[in-house]
Amino acid sequence: MAEQTKQPDDLWRVIREALAREGIDVDLVCRGKPEGQARVICVAASLGDGVQDLAQSARDQVVMLRIDKESVETLDVWVATGVAKSRSEAAALFLREGLRLRAGELAELKDALTKMEDARRQLQERAKSVLGADRSDRG
Q1: Do 124 and 131 contact (CB within 8 A), yes or no?
Q2: Hey, CA dihedral for 118, 120, 123, 127, is it positive or negative?
Q3: The whole model's pTM is what?
């Protein structure tokens, strides 16, 4: 029984050591999280696919956003390394990657939003039927 309990601890130790070799401080990433609350997400080892996808897609939508100084400095590092041509491209790359990481949760939210919009539409239709006419022309 003690051996089974020890195995997850051994696995966690191996994971922590592997991440540390890659320069990732698990304690820093999990700071402020209660024990067992950290989330492990597997991502591709390289952003190459994301960069290639971004280069092949039309970036014709403009989104203005405000970010902190540290984030700007991080984007500048990606530009300086040549991975991204500009801050805008770096931000687009990481926005896309973040959306991919959260795709499952976003799909759940989108489904819930669709249900809410359907309920709102049904409520409006029911209100029209109760009132007996379209009241929009009585402004």
Answers
A1: no
A2: negative
A3: 0.53
Q: Per-residue pLDDT tens for 41-65?
A: 555 556 677 777 777 788 888 889 8
Q: Which tens digit of pLDDT belongs to each residue from 66-104?
A: 999 999 999 999 899 888 889 998 999 888 888 888 888
Task: Read off the tokens for 138.
Answer: 């009585």
CA distances to 2, 3, 52 from 8, rounded to whole Å, are 11, 10, 37
Phi, psi values for residue 25, rounded to 5°: -90, 105
Residue 24: DSSP 8-state:
-
CB atoms within 10 A of CB 100: 13
For residues 100 and 53, give the distance between their C-alpha atoms in angstroms, rounded to a whole number: 12
Query: Could you tell me which of 50, 31, 49 has the C-alpha nearest to residue 94?
Result: 50
Half-sphere exposure of 100 (CA within 13 A, CB side): 14
What are the structure tokens assigned to 64, written together? 């203005």
